Amino acid sequence: MDKILYKNKLIGIKITKMDKGTKPITDAKGPLQLLTINHPKGKRLDSHYHHSKNLVTKYVQECLFLRKGRVRLDIHGPRPAYKFIKNVYLNPGDAFIILDGGYGITMIKDSELFEAKNGPFYDDKVVI
User: Residue 128 and residue 125: Cα distance in Å, rounded?
Assistant: First the structure.
């Protein structure tokens, strides 16, 4: 894991490999939970569900999964300045979770990504 910090604030986490087992990546109190799951053939994880809850979050967090290609992320710091921090490159199989701040994506090669974020979705994107 590569943690991106700005003034001791965690902005994002790049995941390039998975440790064995089921491992939480994000803080359990955060609005978006990300875990890695890496088990051998034959391992069974119990069927389960989660109780319904009224959850309220103050801001959107997102997770990008690169399936194919190569991309460059332009990582920006937290509100209100959104100062540029650094570029992060993703290769197939990499994931990046944006916990705070902003980001841009440049496709270095033809690319396919999955994006997951907390919802519901509102068309409220602000370009920085």
Answer: 10
Band (pLDDT 50/70/90 cuts) for residue 120 is confident
Instruction: Tell me the C-alpha distance between 5 and 46, whole Å.
Output: 35
Q: Is 81 left (phi over 0), alpha (psi -120 to 50) or beta?
A: alpha
* CA dist 20 → 83, 101, 103 (Å): 36, 30, 30
Q: Look at the pTM and tell me if it is higher than 0.90.
A: no
DSSP string, 68-110: ES-EEEEEE-STTT--EEEEEEE-TT-EEEE-SSEEEEEESSS
Grouping H, G, I as helix, E, B as strand and the rest as coil, residue 65 is strand
Interval 76-116: pLDDT, tens: 998 888 999 999 999 999 999 999 999 999 999 999 999 99
* Rg of the chain over all Cα atoms, to the nearest angstrom: 16
